Amino acid sequence: MKTKLTKKFWTALVLFSLIGQVAWVVENMYLNVFMYKMFNASAGDISAMVAASAVAATLTTVFIGALSDKIGKRKLFMCGGYILWGISILCFILLKVDLISALFPMAASASAICITLVIVLDCIMTFFGSSANDAAFNAWLTDSTDNSNRGAAEGINAMMPLVAILAVFGGFMAFDTGHESSWTYIFAIIGTVVTVVGILGIFIIKEPPLVKAKEGYFSTVIYGFRPSTVKKNLSLYFFLVMFILFNISIQIFMPYLILYYEVSLEMSNYVFIMAPAIILASVVTALWGKIYDKKGFSLSVVFSLVWLSLGYIVLFFFKSTALVFVGSLLMMCGYLSGMAVFGAKIRDLTPFGKAGMFQGVRIFSQVLVPGIVGPFIGKTVLANAQTIENNDGTTSFIPNVNIFAAALIVAIILSIILFVFKKVSKRGVN
C-alpha cells in the first residue's frame, strides 16, 4: 500500500527544497563568479573556498543532525536555520573593495582581503544552511516518507537543483555580474527570500513523530562513524562510498561550469541555451524517482551514468551552440537523476529513527570528500590553462574542456565498480 502524503508536506518539500537549492546555487556556482569578477580570484582561491565550505558543511551536519535526533526536533532547526541563513547571505553586500580599502588602508591588496572574507563568510553561511538544509531538512524528508513514496518525493527533491539553476540563471539575466551594484541586488534578493521561507515554514511544516535518541549527545554524534554501525549497515556504507565517486565527478567541473560558458565559449547568451536543457532535465528527474520506486536502483542508475558520461563526451569534443546544449542536457539529466536514485537508495537503507545521526555520514559522501577532491582535481587539470589580461592589468585563467575529461574518468570508474558489485553480489543491488 502506498502511503499518501499531504498537501502541506508537498508544499513544504517544494518550498524548502527549491529555495534551499537556490541559495546553494548562488554559493556553489556564483560565489566563484563573484570572486573571479570582483576580486580576480584564481583557480586556487576557488578550490580553497569550495574545500573550506565542504568542511564547514560536514562538521555542521554531523553535530546538528545528531542534536536534532537528541532533542527529537526537525522543525526548529529547519525554520530557524533558514532565517539565519538568509541573514548571512545579506551580509555579502558589505564585501566591496572600496569599503575594505577604507577599513584596511595599510593593506597591500584589498582584493586579497575580500577573497579571504568571502571564504570566511561562506563558511558562516554554510553553517546556517547546512544546519537547516543538510541536517534538518534531509532528516525531516527521510522521517516523513517511507518505502512506498520515497522515490517520488526524492524525485521532486532531486529536480530542485536544476529548477534552482533555471531560476537563478533567469533572474541573473537582469544583472551584469561584472558590476558591483548587481551583486548588491543579488544578495539582497536571495537573502530576503530565504529568510521569508524560514518564516513560512513555522506555519506549514509538520513535525514528524520522533522519539528522542536515548544515547548521550556525543554517542549520537559518532554513531554513524562507529565500526559496529558500519558492520550492521554494510549496504548503506557501500552506496555512500559510491555516492562519493559520483559527487567527485560532479565537483570536478561544477565550480568552473559558468566560467567555462562565459569565458571559454564566450556565450553571453548561455542562459537562453541552458534554460530549455534545465527544463527538460527537471522533467526527466521528477519522473525518474518514480522509475526508482517501480524498477529499483540497478536499472535507474545505469541510465543516469550513461547520460552523465555521454554529456561529458559531447562537452569535451564540441563547442558549437547546438552541441553544447545537447551535452549540457545529457550531463544535467545524468547528474540530477543520479542524485535522485542515490539519494533514495541511501534513505531506504537508513535505519528508522536514526536519520539525523546518519546525515553526517551522508554529508561526508555528498559534500566533504567530493568538495575537497573534486575541485582539487579540477584545479590540477587547469594548472596550465590559458590566461587573459583584465582591464586593471591582472590576469585570470580560462577554464577548458579538461574538466569534463577528468569527470568522465571518475564516472567510468564508478560504473565499473557498480557493474562488478552487481555481478558478484548474491542478492544484487535492488
Please, could you describe this protein's structure?
This protein is an all-alpha fold and 430 residues long. It has a single domain, classed as Growth Hormone, Chain: A, CATH 1.20.1250. 78% of the residues lie in helices and 1% in strands. The model has no long low-confidence stretch (mean pLDDT 85).
* Element-level helix/strand string: HHHHHHHHHHHHHHHEEH
Report the end-to-end length measured between terminal Cα atoms. Answer: 19 Å
Assign the CATH superfamily: MFS general substrate transporter like domains
Number of domains: 1
Going by helix content, strand content and strand pairing, the class is mainly alpha
Helix content: over 70%
- CATH fold call: Growth Hormone, Chain: A
Report the top-level CATH class: Mainly Alpha
Main sheet: strand order: 1-2
CATH architecture: Up-down Bundle
Largest sheet: 2 strands, antiparallel
Report a brief summary of the structure.
The chain is mainly alpha-helical. The protein has 16 helices and two strands.
Q: What key attributes describe this structure?
A:
430 residues, mainly alpha, Growth Hormone, Chain: A
Topology:
Elements: H1 7-39, H2 43-71, H3 75-90, H4 97-103, H5 110-144, H6 150-172, H7 180-204, H8 217-222, H9 227-232, H10 234-253, H11 257-264, H12 270-295, H13 297-317, H14 321-349, H15 355-381, E1 387-389, E2 395-397, H16 402-424
Antiparallel strand pairs: 1-2
